[in-house]
Amino acid sequence: MLSIHPLAQLGAILLAFYAAYLGFQRTRSLHFGKSVKFFRERHVIAGSIALISMLGGTAAGFIMVNRYLLNPNMGMHEVVAMIMLPFGLFGIFSGFFLYLNPKQRKFLPAIHAINNLIILVLALAQIATGSMAYLRYVLRL
Fold first, then answer.
1. In this structure, are residues 126 and 75 in contact, taking their beta carbons and an 8 Å threshold?
2. Which residues contact 127 (CB under 8 A, 6 or more apart)?
3. Would you state the pLDDT for residue 69?
4. Contact 66, 115 (CB under 8 A)
5. 3-class SS at 134?
6. Tens of pLDDT along 47-68?
């Protein structure tokens, strides 16, 4: 049961990297003048699932720590999760706003992209700290 959280989060992070790749195609056309196809629907679906899954994973992590009486002092893993929360919420809401109000914009898509790249960097930190927490508190190594 305790392996569901890390596996689901890894899947969400991989999906987020795919959404970032799709979003970079839009960045290339908006900011670098390249003529590339932007798969808007795929980007929205992949990004939405990834961000909502990551936020759900934060809640699931807290529930698992309490349910299975694991050591709640996960240190850096917990801190990074708390830092990710506002970025994740902004990523979801700015993404939905951009999707529901399609216009030629440059500023908000750039802020949305930077925000979500920060999330990806933090997600990589979560993989490292989560792996250590899993080894220590679940596998007891």
1. no
2. 10, 13
3. 64
4. no
5. helix
6. 999 999 999 999 988 888 778 7
Report yes or no: 58 and 84 within 8 Å, Cβ to Cβ: yes
| Per-residue pLDDT at 18 exceeds 90 | yes
- The pair phi, psi for residue 115, each rounded to 5°, is -55, -45
DSSP, residue by residue, 32-98: S-------HHHHHHHHHHHHHHHHHHHHHHHHHHHHTT--S--THHHHHHHHHHHHHHHHHHHHHHH
Q: How far is CA 1 from CA 40, 74, 78, 85, 114, in A?
A: 35, 18, 20, 24, 34
Nearest Cα to 108, choosing from 39, 19, 31? 31
pLDDT tens, residue by residue, 96-122: 999 999 998 889 999 999 999 999 999
Distance of CA 39 to the CA centre of its chain: 19
